[in-house]
Design a protein that fits this description.
Elements: E1 16-19, E2 22-25, H1 37-53, H2 58-69, E3 81-83, E4 86-91, E5 100-105, E6 112-117, H3 118-121, E7 129-130, E8 134-135, E9 141-147, E10 154-160, E11 171-174, E12 179-180, E13 186-192, E14 199-206, E15 215-219, E16 226-231, E17 237-243, E18 248-254, E19 263-264, E20 274-279, E21 282-287, E22 296-301, E23 311-314, E24 321-327, E25 331-338, E26 341-348, E27 354-355, E28 363-367, E29 377-384, E30 390-395, E31 400-406, E32 419-427, E33 433-441, E34 452-455, H4 473-476, E35 481-485, H5 495-499, H6 507-522, E36 531-536, H7 538-549, E37 556-560, H8 566-571, H9 582-585, H10 591-600, E38 613-619, H11 628-640, E39 647-652, H12 663-680
Helix pairs in contact: 2-12
Length: 685
C-alpha cells in the first residue's frame, strides 16, 4: 500500500511583536534562523512533500526541459562590440551551462583570446556567478569577481591578461564591480555591509598591494542610501554615486588623478534626483529639478556643477518620461516613454530630431553597448512578445539599419506569424485605464475556455517591458494566453504612474491587477477556472495579496521569492536592504505606515478561507527576500486555508534571489512552474 503524502506541519511557538501599542503574534518567527537544524529539517520536509506530490509530473518536467532546451542555440555568441582596440565576445558552447568571455585584437579575424571560461571556474561549485568584468585602459589587466553562494557578496580578483596569471589578492564582500583609474594600477570598488548587505563603502586598491592596506575613500553613513562607483563614458572622470529611492548625489575626480580628492557634483537635497553624463567640457544632467516629475535634461560646465548653474536642454513634459541618454560626437540619443511605449529619439547636435519607427504596441526598444563617442552608428535592441530579440546597428546620418542578429529559435517549428500580440486597456476601480500586453497563438476563440497566465511586478518604478521568450512557446503552443499587466507602481506610464503605486497608495498596484483580471474574464479571454497569476520578489508580494484579497479569481498562482512578511521585515533594520526601502513602502516606525502595511501584508492577512493552488519558490541564501518569509507564509496557509487545493513550497537549498545558476539548471526550475500550471489544466503532454 502506498504511503500517504501529507504536508509537514510547522510547530507553533508563540512570539509577540509589539509596535505602536499593537501586538501581533507570530507563531512561525522561529523559522528565521537558518543555523537552526530544525529550520533546515522543516524546509527539507516541505521539499520532500512537493517532490512526492508532483512525482506524476516528473517525466513531463523532463520532457518540457528538453523541449525548451531544444530551442536554445547552444553554441551561440553575442554580437561583438569594439572597445579600446579589442572586439569583446560572450559565447556558449554546446552542452555547457556557463558563458565563455573572450576578445580579439583589432579584427574579428584575429586569434581569440579567452578571458574567462566560466564552465571551468564553476566546476565543483553548486552555484557560480561571474560578477563585474572590467579591463584596464592599457588592456593588460582584468578585474573580475565571483559569487559562489548566490548572496550577491562577490570576491574581487585580478588577472594579468598577458601572462594569464591570477594574482593571489582576494577582496571579499564586494558588490562585484571595479573601476580602473587611468594609471592602470589603481582600482576603485564598492563593499557591502556584512549583515545588511548595503553597499556603503568605496575603497581604493593599488595593484599588487595587500588589500588590507586599501584606502577607504567614501563611507555612506545614511542607512537609506547605497553607493557605487564607475567611470564616465568619456573616461575622463571616476564617479561615485549615492542614491536612495528619492534622492541622489554624485562625486567626481579626474581618472588621471586617482589619489585626488572627490568633489561633490551637487549636494544631496531630499527629493532631488539626478544622473550625470560627461561630454566635452560639460556635464548633461537628467533630473527632476524644478518639479520635473517626468524628468528633464539639463547641462552645466564641468567646472561649475552645482544646480544653480544647470540650464535646460530638454524641458519637462508631463506626458513624456525621460529615461536615459546616450551621447555621441555628433548626436544626442534620448530614450523616453510616452503612453506606455518606449521610444528612441535621435537628436543631431546640428539638424532636425527624429524618432526610430516602431509599428506595434507590444514591443521593447532600448539602446545597448554604445561605447564609442566618434561614431554615427547607434546600437539598439528590439523585441516584442512574438518577435525574438534583435540587435540592430542604426546609421544616424543615413537613417539605415542593419540587423546584426536575431535570436535563433531552434527546432524549425517557430514562426512569429503564428502568434498574435496586442495591447488592451482595462479600467481600474477608480477609473484609471491600465494597459495589458498579451500574446497568444492565432486562432483561439474568446469563449472563456483559454488558460491565461498574467504577470506583473509593479514596484520601485520598474517598467514591465513586453519581452520575447522562446521558453514561453511551451505554454503558448498548448493554448495559453500570456499577459503582462502594467500596473501602477512601475513607471510604465510615466513617473506619476510610479508615485500612484507606492507608500500610502500601494494598494493601487493590487487593485489594478485584480481589475485587469476581471477585465480579461469579462472579455472572455479566459474564466476563473482557467485564470493564473505569476510574480516574483515584489511581484511575489502582489501574488500574496491577490491570494488573500481575491482568491476566487484564480485557479493557480506562482509566487517566486515573494516579499510577503512586509511589516516584520520593514521593522527589522538588520535585514539586508531594509532601510533603503523606506521611501518605497514607508517606515513602519511611523504609525500611519505601520497601519497601512499591516492592512495588506500577505502573511499578516492570511485567514480561514479557500485559496487557489499555490506554487511558492525561494532560495535559502536569498539576499533580497529572506527565505523565511515564504516559509512562514506557507506554514500559516497550511494552518488556516479551508480547501485542499495544492500548496507547494519549493526551496532551492543552494541558491538565492535569482534562482539556480547556469542556463540549463534555471530551465529545470522553469519546467517545474510550467508543469504546475499544465497539471492544473489537465494537460499531460
Amino acid at each position: 500500500m502506498q504511503e500517504k503524502n501529507t504536508p509537514p506541519i510547522a510547530k507553533r511557538i508563540p512570539h509577540k511583536l509589539e509596535k505602536h501599542g499593537h501586538v501581533r503574534n507570530d507563531d512561525y518567527y522561529w523559522l528565521n534562523n537558518r543555523e537552526n537544524p530544525e529550520v533546515i529539517d522543516y524546509l527539507n520536509k516541505e521539499n520532500d512533500y512537493y517532490k512526492k506530490a508532483t512525482a506524476h509530473t516528473v517525466d513531463f518536467q523532463k520532457d518540457l526541459f528538453e523541449e525548451m532546451k531544444s530551442r536554445i542555440k547552444e553554441d551561440d555568441q553575442s554580437v561583438p562590440y569594439l572597445y579600446n582596440g579589442y572586439f569583446y565576445i560572450t559565447r556558449h558552447e554546446k552542452g555547457k551551462d556557463y558563458p565563455i568571455y573572450s576578445r580579439k585584437k583589432g579584427s574579428l579575424e584575429a586569434k581569440e583570446e579567452i578571458l574567462f571560461d566560466c564552465n571551468e571556474m564553476a566546476k565543483e561549485q553548486s552555484y557560480f556567478q561571474l560578477g563585474g568584468l572590467s579591463i584596464s585602459e592599457d588592456n593588460k589587466w582584468a578585474a573580475f569577481s565571483v559569487d559562489l553562494v548566490s548572496r550577491r557578496q562577490y570576491t574581487l580578483q585580478f588577472k594579468n591578461l598577458e601572462t594569464n596569471e591570477i594574482l593571489p589578492t582576494k577582496i571579499i564582500n564586494t558588490s562585484g564591480g571595479a573601476t580602473w583609474a587611468a594609471d592602470n594600477k589603481t582600482v576603485f570598488y564598492s563593499r557591502n555591509d556584512e549583515v545588511t548587505l548595503r553597499t556603503d563603502k568605496i575603497f581604493k586598491h593599488k595593484l599588487g598591494s595587500d588589500s588590507a592596506d586599501d584606502q577607504l575613500v567614501f563611507f555612506e553613513k545614511d542607512e537609506t542610501f547605497d553607493s557605487n562607483i564607475y567611470k564616465s563614458k568619456s573616461e575622463k572622470y571616476i564617479i561615485i554615486v549615492s542614491s536612495s529611492t528619492l534622492t541622489s548625489e554624485y562625486q567626481t575626480i579626474l581618472a588621471n588623478n586617482p589619489d585626488g580628492e572627490f568633489k561633490i557634483f551637487q549636494k544631496r537635497t531630499r527629493g532631488l534626483e539626478y544622473s550625470i553624463s560627461h561630454y566635452g567640457d560639460s556635464f548633461y544632467i537628467l533630473t527632476n529639478k524644478d518639479k520635473a516629475t517626468n524628468f528633464k535634461l539639463m547641462k552645466t560646465n564641468e567646472n561649475n556643477t552645482s544646480k544653480d548653474n544647470w540650464v535646460d536642454v530638454i524641458s519637462h513634459n508631463k506626458d513624456v518620461l525621460l529615461e536615459k541618454i546616450d551621447i555621441f560626437k555628433d548626436y544626442l540619443v534620448v530614450s523616453e516613454r510616452s503612453n506606455g511605449l518606449s521610444k528612441i529619439k535621435i537628436m543631431p547636435w546640428r539638424g532636425e530630431a527624429y524618432f526610430l519607427p516602431f509599428e506595434i504596441e507590444t514591443y521593447t526598444a532600448y539602446t545597448t553597448s554604445n561605447i564609442d563617442f566618434n561614431t554615427e552608428i547607434l546600437r539598439y535592441g528590439y523585441q516584442s512578445m512574438a518577435t525574438p530579440v534583435s540587435v540592430i546597428d542604426f546609421n544616424m546620418r543615413t537613417k539605415t539599419k542593419k540587423i546584426l542578429k536575431e535570436l535563433e529559435v531552434q527546432g524549425g517549428k517557430f514562426d512569429k506569424n503564428n502568434y498574435e500580440e496586442k495591447r488592451i486597456w482595462a479600467t481600474a476601480t477608480d477609473g484609471t485605464k491600465v494597459p495589458i500586453s498579451i500574446v497568444y497563438r492565432k486562432g483561439i476563440k474568446k469563449d472563456g475556455n483559454n488558460p491565461l497566465l498574467l504577470n506583473a511586478y509593479g514596484s520601485y518604478g520598474y517598467s514591465s517591458e513586453p519581452y520575447f521568450s522562446a521558453f514561453n512557446l511551451s505554454l503558448l503552443d498548448r493554448g495559453f494566453i500570456l499577459g503582462i499587466a502594467h500596473v501602477r507602481g512601475g513607471e510604465d506610464l510615466g513617473r506619476q504612474w510610479y508615485e500612484d503605486g507606492k507608500l500610502l497608495k500601494k494598494k493601487n498596484t493590487f487593485t489594478d491587477f485584480i481589475d485587469c483580471t476581471r477585465f480579461l474574464i469579462d472579455e472572455k479571454y479566459t474564466s476563473r477556472q482557467h485564470m493564473y497569476a505569476e510574480g516574483g520578489s515584489a511581484g511575489g508580494l502582489l501574488m500574496g495579496v491577490l491570494a488573500n484579497m481575491a482568491p476566487e479569481f484564480y485557479n493557480g498562482i506562482i509566487s517566486q521569492v515573494p516579499f510577503v512578511d512586509v511589516v516584520t521585515t520593514m521593522l527589522d533594520d538588520s535585514i539586508p536592504l531594509t532601510t533603503g526601502e523606506y521611501d518605497e513602502w514607508g517606515n513602519p516606525n511611523e504609525k500611519k505606515y505601520y497601519d497601512y502595511m499591516l492592512s495588506y501584508s500577505p502573511y499578516d492577512n492570511v485567514k480561514a478561507q479557500d485559496y487557489p493552488s499555490l506554487y511558492i519558490s525561494t532560495g535559502l541564501h536569498d539576499s533580497q527576500v529572506q527565505y523565511w518569509e515564504p516559509a512562514k507564509w506557507v506554514a500559516k496557509l497550511r494552518l488556516l486555508k479551508t480547501n485542499d487545493k495544492k500548496l507547494f513550497l519549493d526551496t532551492n537549498m543552494e541558491a538565492g534571489h535569482g534562482g539556480a545558476s547556469g542556463r540549463f539548471e534555471a530551465l529545470k526550475e522553469l519546467a517545474k512552474e510550467f508543469t504546475f500550471l499544465l497539471d492544473l489544466e489537465g494537460i499531460k503532454r
